[in-house]
Design brief:
There is one protein chain. The protein has a domain at 1-22 and 38-44 and 65-83 and 90-116. Helix content is 28%, strand content 28%. It is built from 3 helices and 6 strands; from the N terminus they run αββββαββα.
Length: 116
Amino acid sequence: MTRQDLIDFCLTFPAAYEDYPFDDIADAGAWTVMRHKINKKSFALIYERHSKLCVNLKCDPFEADIMRQAFEDITPAYHMNKEHWNTVKVGGNVPEDEMKRMIGRSYDLIKPKFKT
């Protein structure tokens, strides 16, 4: 997956939008933050580190640890709470379907909870 593929996939979720809070321009070196329009919470942070495309994703703490053990290219999140966030190196040993599942799970964890 490319940076644009990740952004495009994240934009398929309801009320998702891309943001660039750390950079003046949206270029290849910028951090792309995918957020929910209602609560502004982020669910995916897309960036390059050491010339590798990475994405930080929110996780249930138990699942975060399991994923780190299962995949070499999933580590505690760079610049984030290590208990609740993982970094996934794109193009590594994490299958694309698994990465998409993790993005969906991250979105589910941050989306607004409406009381009925």
